[in-house]
Structures are given as C-alpha cells and as structure tokens.
Amino acid sequence: MEKRICILFVIAALLTACGNGETAETEKTADTAGGTDTETAAETLSEKEQLLAALPTGDYGGYDFMMLNNESNFAYTQMGAEELTGEGINDAIYNRNSAVADRLNVKLTENRVGYAEVTSTMKTAVAAGDSTYSCFWNESAFVAPFAIEGSLWNVKDLTALSLDQPWWDAGAMADLTIGDYLYFLVGDLHLMFRESFWMVGFNKNIADDVGIEDLYNVVREGAWTMDKMGAAMAAARADLNGDGSMAGNDRFGMTCYEGCVIPLFIGAGETLVERDENGIPHFVTPDDRFYQAYEKIVSTYFAKNIDYSCIGGKTKNIDQYAAEGMDAFHGVFLSGHALFYLEPIGSLKKLRNMDAEFGVLPYPKLDESQPEYATYIANYAAVCGVPVTTGDPERTGVVLENLCALSHDDLQNAYINDTLSFKYIRDEDSRDMLDILFATGRFNLSDQLDVGTIRAKLQSSAISGSNTVAAALEKLLPAAETKLDENIRKLTQAG
Q1: What is the CA radius of gyration of the chain?
Q2: What's the whole-model pTM score?
C-alpha cells in the first residue's frame, strides 16, 4: 500500500516538472489534486483487497493441493466445501477455498477420515516418499510422533508463513516451540483447534435458585477462583429425594469426566514444564504453589468425603442416562442436575436442546493473586503438520498462509458470532467469556510429547484424593525428564 502511494506521488511530481510553465498556484492545485486522487485510490481498496495485496502469491498451474484431515465426533473439522448451502460455516469455507484456488491457481482437495487412518495413511506416505498430501491435520498427540521421527518440516523454515499475524495463534504455538523448531501449525483455518479449548458451563437456573452471585461479573473482576467455585458447588449440592445418598436425580455441584483434572491445573496457572533461556523445555520440581493447587483441586472437586461432584462413571446410581444413550456426566448436566459442567467448547453442541438456561465461564484461578486466567487446549486439538514428502514446501507455505489469513474474518465470524453465539450459547455475557477463553489458551507440552505417566498419575491421584502424589511424582519425574530430553534431541536434529 505504501509503495502504491509513493508511486502516485512520484508520478504527480514528474507531471508537474514537465509542465508548460503554470503558476505556483496552478502547481499547488495540481499537487492538491494529486493528493486527493491518491487518497481516493487508497480508499477504494477494501480491507480484503489490502489483505490480499500483502499475502504471498504465485501461479501453481492447477496443482492439486491435497489435504488429509481428521474426522471428529464432537468438533467441526471441515476444511473443504463442495457448494454453497446457506449454512454459515460451510459457505465461509467454500468462499475461502474458492478465493485461494483462484488466486494461486490450485485445486484444493480434502480427504477426511478418522484420526487413526490419518496416522496410518501418513506413515505409509512418508515411508514411501509419496508426495500426494501437501499437509495434514490430526489430533496434536498423534502429530507429535511424526515430528519426533523426523517426518515433518520445521514450519519456521517456510518463509511464506507470517506466524506473527493474528490469524495464527502465536501464544499456542509458542507452547509447542522448542528453541528454533516448530512442527505444529494452529490458527483460524481449522475450527477443531478452537473447539478443543476447555470451558466451565453452568446452569443459570440452579445458580439463581440457590442465590449464587453473578458469576460473569466475578470473572470480569478477576475474582473467579477455586474457592468461589467450591462455595457455589456446595450451595448447589442437594439430596433432593432425602434418601441419604447422591444419585442421578439429585443435584450435584459439578459434573465432568476424568480428563478435567489437567485443565484444572492449567487454570490454576500450574505446569511442570518450563523453558530455559534458549527456549528448550524441561521438567521442574513441583514447588509449594503446585502442591497448594493440588490440595485445592482435591478438596474442592474430588475428595472422597464429599459428593459434590459427578465424575464420569465413578459416581453410583446414575445408570438411567446410559439407557438414553448419554454418558452419565453429560446426562446429569443436560437434565438440570448439576450446577457446573467441565468440558471442551465443542461439547456445547450437546447442550443445544437443554431445557435449563446455561452460560460459559473460564476455568477458575487458584486465587486472586494469579495475574490472569488460563485455558487448557486439549491434546486432541487439531494441528497441521507439513510432511517432509510435500512436493514443494514453499508452495505449501503459500497456500496455508492464504487459507489461514482468509479464515480470520469470515470463517471465524461464522463460527463464533453465528454458530457459537446464536446456536450454542444463549447470552452476550457468554460471548464475552469466550473471548477470555480464546485469549488465554495454553498447550501442555508434556501432553503433546507423551512423556512419562505424569498426566495419568496426577489425574488418578487427584480423583482418588491421594496424599502420596509428591512421592509418586518424585519417582516418575527423572524418567519423564530423560524421555523429554530424548524427544527434544530428535526434534532438534530433525529440524
């Protein structure tokens, strides 16, 4: 844009210099007119035209850009669309792909299969040197082994990618970066990434019935903590039939499955992986704050002596929901028998026909001294890998940069403003909460690289209320560190 303006000014100056002796006033008029023309020209460029002008381009002669993509039973994974249907997400994808195809002279083809088939197909392709697929998406935990095996490009070497642009999630990718090496792309072009952010859903009817304060305001004030959530759970818990035990028709403070433990740690601002001055991750010995978070998680959500929580299949007497084709923890919330519901955003689809009113919150802080909220991005979030067998890695970078940039507005608007805001969430406050969630997403690197059994141990220990977790972690961490070092060595050698 700046170059265009400069050229116009140069032309105006040359025309003035070659004139036939006009007066200074005429010259002034000419200069003014030239400036006006320039401004008008600039104004005629739409925001999308300005965006396109700044993006890398090329003519790839009708190249078939094949994308292998995973299918999911809970999240949007669509990358291709055959026609306009009037459905917001589909049409945004169709228009985006058409624009990129026309701009770069490529054909965009999507092959969408289950995550296991993505893995097996790409393993076979890489082993055979098959360049059929220019890129692929799969759950992050299944893409990581490809990077460790040396089968992926370090995407920092793809010069067409501008990873500091807002259509890429720089914060999330920073969590996945090892020194100068990054093998995962995440951003606006694939919706399963956003669908994998964890949230706290809450039943607004129960909150009103038991006199719980406005939780949206609590969040905005920075005061949404585990203690606040625990107090609300205690207020909501009720043995409705008075039989002395908690069952599916009673009212729980919270419902979730076992996978909610790590999101609670991340929400508390805790992780066992830190980075040195060179950006290389390593495990750290758990400190007092970590164990404070552990004790708070146990006592608030999982202690054996309280029955405020319905945890997956571990809570008794809730078999009636299985007969209706639902997991117990889903059924308890959908039927209006739990205040809180801990799940990824993609599960909002399951709440569409819920009778009670509900809202969305971020995960609570450990305490108010914690500077900001933190949101766990699940290890089944879709990430993009560029295989070493891609025919032309720079071409792949150009196509992906264009796809992601053109997803930033239309596709994300269709997803957040049309689908989430109008189909799945029910109030403007929840829309504000989603902004907080998306701004604070964090990957847990040890999840992605599958090192040791740290995740499993924390999960099982918290749910059981174990008081021996410190000793268990002390025993597990050396082996986990060795495995992490081994994986990092392979990743940096591969790059």
Answers
A1: 26
A2: 0.86
